[in-house]
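Handout for the seminar on molecular recognition.
Each group receives one record of this type.
Step one: identify the two inputs.
Step two: read the structure output and locate the region that could contact magnesium ion.
Step three: write two sentences on what you found, then compare them with the reference statements printed after the record.
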Amino acid sequence: MARDGAVYACQSCGAVQTKWAGQCPACAGWNTLVEELQSRPPGALAPSSSKVARARGLAFEGLEDETQAPPRIATGVDEFDRVCGGGVVPGSAILLGGDPGVGKSTLLLQVAAEAARRGARCAYISGEEAVEQVRSRAQRMGLADAPVKLAAETALRAIVDGLKREPFDLVVIDSIQTLWSDAHEAGPGSVTQVRAAAGELVRLAKSRGVAIVLVGHVTKEGTIAGPRVIEHMVDAVLAFEGERGYPFRILRGAKNRFGATDEIGVFEMGDAGLREVKNPSALFLNTSGERAAGAAVFAGIEGSRPVLVEFQALVAPSAYGTPRRAVVGWDSGRLAMVLAVLEARCGLSLGDRDVYLNVAGGLRITEPAADLAAAAALASSALDQTLPQDCVVFGEISLSGEVRAVSRMDSRLKEAAKLGFRRALGPAEMDGGGVMRTTGAGRLADAVRRIGEAAWD
Ligand code: TYD
Ligand code: MG
């Protein structure tokens, strides 16, 4: 029997139930419901704004009325600013999510320090590390001179009082899962606490005009509430990602009320913190040495920027009854489709061979435009023929084996030309503008034939 005031919150999706169940009815996760004592019933967490509206009367405005673009604080970390939509908006709340150890604290310490050096009043409040630890990290990163105010605190009340006493432009809270509010009985990291703390900090951001960045650890298991439970409260959700073993880190916008969400920021983790990578193409490409059979350079678009990245494939005889298919950095369903089209429409027999596909540098590619690059890498390996050293590839492949035009073909070609590429294999519609030699392939079979015969005029 549920006790008075007891509710069950899913630690994965945040849905609140009045009865316990083994499986969350909202997200179907198992064993994620945990009893939490609520001081207020769910749904009454936010003060009702409709009451305020009723008192004042509701003032309508037209869509065409003038609106000032929100002012922005440029933090000086350009890759971060761009993903935010051109700087941080005062009075907004940003959630930065990512796996533990990916570099969230490092990034935000750098952002706070650079912004402070440019005159913004910045605070960094850590609930995970002591002030000495943060300070010594800042020293190692060469940021010791930046006028950032540091504090180590986990009590929400103390943080809110402190931020009300002193005006700031930018405040980093690291992390939301360590905070606890004395208004709630549930433990730190629980859905109730994380929601309450986020709610209060978002209100503070709005009322004081201070930009607040909340760090949220992404957790696979439901021991602490994931950042998903507060995504709807904040103005922007950024994800910090990195493949294990690679120094590269990608900052992605997942939601942004003040900008586009398809931007990425690229960083490299080194001994002195994160270094911004202004030209990611150079990073993900192996520009020196011969291109091996099985390699194809994809001319992609990440956000507003063209990015060149190498697809590497290995097609090898299988030693076992069931051939292996392994893919890193690309969708395995997409790989299965491309393999099926290569087999059915291009006469390549791959069914009894092991297939490995890897996107170099730890980048994850989601664009359908990468189909042809993957197919070219696979065909190149299967036929043991290299692609020309100076060739980029892009195009979407349909099940019927056609190569379809993709968005922003001009930007892709321009970026490739800038990096010394002189040839492109892609949809028939592309136009090299006299700079790039284009090999248009209406069908995948045309592209495969060219690779097999090394017919590159
Ligand atoms: P951190 O920012 O603490 O990660 P998070 O806050 O997301 O949990 O970064 C942790 C990792 O980054 C740690 O394994 C060490 C590495 N690192 C460096 O390689 N160089 C550096 O200069 C710093 C500060 C961290
Ligand atoms: Mg950290």
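Reference statements: The chain has three domains: 1-41, 78-278, 283-453. The two ends are 78 Å apart (CA to CA).
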